[in-house]
Amino acid sequence: MPCLAGTRQVSGLGIGEHLLLEVDGSQKSGSGTILRLSVALASILKEPLHIHHIREKRPQPGLRPQHLEAVLTAAKICKAEVEGATLGSRELWFRPREIAGGELKAEIGTAGSIPMLIMTVLPICIFAKNPVKLHIIRGGTDVRNSPTINYVQYVMLRILKRMGIKALITVHRYGYYPKGMGEVTLEVWPSLKIEPIRLEEFGKVERLGGISVCTFLADRKVAERQAKAANEFLKIRGFEANIRVVNDRSNPLQKGSSIVLWAETDKNVLLGGDAIGELRKTSENVGREAAEKLYREIEAKATVDIHMADILIPYVALAKGSSTYFTREISDHLETNIWLAEKILGVKFKVTKIGN
Prior knowledge:
alpha+beta, four-stranded mixed sheet
């Protein structure tokens, strides 16, 4: 199991020096994570950014609707000038100024991921002069290749709270592929200091929880079946989760479902695993998938799950002091985020393999 330790060092990119940050989006994973993190860190540093070959290694390179809206929303938050912000664009110039805060609105317009937009702007909002209230409409709360909105709410934000980050999510309407139409409000309060996080012991599992949601599928007992299948998988392995079942009616335009599970230990470890409903995928398979993901984390005795391992990188890099945690594997996104944080912030990460 790899152990990650991050240490903050003095960077050559001092705020106000106006050095141009040059980022090649084809490096490492060649994915949208490079764009999202580059824009966030440039905004915080108040340094102009030039990023090219955006999402070069993806089937449809360049800016997709969710990436475009993430850039434009970040620009609103930090009053940035932007060039190249058009659908399909592979090159972008982003010149941030003051992170003022206030009330803002974002509209994705497809089933593009609301959680991914949140992950782009949340680090920026922490450094705002005033609280930020961001109303996000017409997007996907629970879609492929993205954490679910309930994972963000019940796993990610709870872990970030331990680092002194105060944020709140309100789900007004769940949104699924292909229509989306999800609606969420994100509220963030400025943080004077980001605390490091040290999760060096797994401890003993004390409780498991979860939320199983279906939208306009109550007649088929989708949420109940997801929860039951998840618990059947876990019980065989000695665990049982207290899963809240939600038969949602918020979005009459798009039916769908999701489930998130989490495990808490006596050493302050919080692990998550989630899954979404899709066509030709049974509710039982959705529940089992989330349970399998969570069980893999528990079995490995990781201290953060595989999603959280890469999500934490910018916060660890910006924290005052060193952080340590264990993850069961080094994903492409984790490797990319480490590379980018070291490149832009001048921080140093040490990755050590422990056992197999």
